């Protein structure tokens, strides 16, 4: 008997729960820091409607309910550290340099989210959870689009502003 096959469903469910907890915290923090940003395009880019975080929360919640998995009390250690980094740079007044520092952290967050959603997608596929696999793949694509949008703002708005 393959004991790894018995463990994968538990890893998958735990990872889903941690990701849901992380998404909820990211939603709150991004809403909070957007008021301290100087760049209007950046504020818009990290809004819930642009980042699709609310959709991700809904997809994760639905998947967990169907799997009868309880929510994790807190996100992973990595997410906690990223949230701490983000909070450390927010509320320091409005400046383009602070926006750039926050942008770098947010891009790191979304890059890690893409990686995590891709892993969750592969686990769901391996477990035969095709419906969840499609939802998780969409979350990854949403976050890739957010990164692309942030890259455009970085290149076309923020860096030219600093160059002046």
From TrEMBL:
Mind telling me what this protein is named? Answer: Ferritin-like metal-binding protein YciE
Q: Which organism is it from?
A: Pedobacter hartonius
